[in-house]
């Protein structure tokens, strides 16, 4: 999969430079020169990385950072500016920017920053996917179930618990009989500690 990068800068030469550099690195690059055009691109496409200048003719790069992070939280944002201040750097990071680079920058600096931003985005997506898979696998309480039969057994325990009937749990040693009994007890509303 080719990573997609959006470059927003009112200096045409900067857009051209970054376009040539990044396409040479194998990225798909889109450029634009103002906030309005950036909003159009953000609203219609998803980018892996967004590089934005801070001072633009029709607004501020912070507006772009905020818009893209609200719409596409996984997009990694790099703010570049010739007018760096500690306050704008802090503001950019609070809005979710990955990094803040002062112009003029070294070519290797931008390459490394983009590579690390892409790695961070990939790790974020992988983390979310792992959490989703864990949520599918994990039962309730102390019991962890993966197989369909174990999940069915947990559902049965949840249906039986509020009825007050006596339950006999059979199974080999180490299969989780005590955990199932505790789960039924916890869901039953019975008073007292589980012993």
Question: What's this entry about, in short?
Answer:
Helix content is 51%, strand content 15%. The protein has 195 residues and is of the alpha/beta class. Strands 2-1-3-6-7 form a 5-stranded parallel beta sheet, with helices on both faces.
Helix/strand layout:
Elements: E1 4-8, H1 12-24, E2 28-32, H2 35-44, E3 49-53, E4 55-56, E5 59-60, H3 61-71, E6 76-81, H4 86-94, E7 99-102, H5 107-137, H6 148-160, H7 177-188
Parallel strand pairs: 1-2, 1-3, 3-6, 6-7
Antiparallel strand pairs: 4-5
Helix pairs in contact: 2-3, 6-7
Low-confidence parts, pLDDT < 50 over ≥5 residues?
Answer: none
Q: Specify the oligomeric state.
A: single chain
Strand order, sheet with most strands: 2-1-3-6-7
Gyration radius, in Å: 26 Å
Tell me the helix content.
40-55%
Basic shape: elongated
Describe this structure in words.
- By secondary structure, the chain is of the alpha/beta class.
- The chain is 51% helix and 15% strand.
- Strands 2-1-3-6-7 form a 5-stranded parallel beta sheet, sandwiched between helices. A two-stranded antiparallel ribbon has the order 4-5.
- The radius of gyration is 26 Å and the shape is elongated.
Key terms for this structure?
195 residues, five-stranded parallel beta sheet, alpha/beta, elongated
């Amino acid at each position: 999969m080719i990573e997609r990068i959006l470059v927003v800068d009112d200096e045409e030469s900067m857009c051209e430079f970054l376009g040539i550099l990044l396409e040479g690195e194998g990225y798909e690059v889109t450029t634009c020169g103002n906030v309005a055009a950036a909003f159009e691109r953000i609203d219609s496409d998803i980018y892996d990385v967004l590089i934005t200048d801070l001072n633009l003719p029709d607004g501020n790069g912070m507006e772009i950072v905020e818009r893209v992070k609200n719409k596409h939280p996984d997009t990694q944002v790099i703010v570049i500016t010739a007018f760096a201040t500690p306050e704008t750097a802090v503001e950019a990071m609070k809005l979710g920017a990955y990094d803040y680079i002062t112009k003029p920058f070294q070519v290797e600096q931008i390459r490394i920053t983009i590579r690390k931003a892409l790695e961070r985005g990939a790790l974020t997506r992988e983390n979310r996917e792992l959490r989703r898979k864990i949520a599918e696998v994990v039962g309730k309480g102390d019991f962890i179930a993966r197989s369909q039969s174990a999940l069915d057994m947990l559902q049965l325990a949840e249906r039986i618990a509020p009825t007050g009937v006596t339950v006999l749990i059979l199974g080999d040693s180490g299969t989780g009989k005590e955990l199932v009994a505790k789960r039924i007890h916890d869901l039953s509303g019975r008073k007292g500690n589980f012993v």
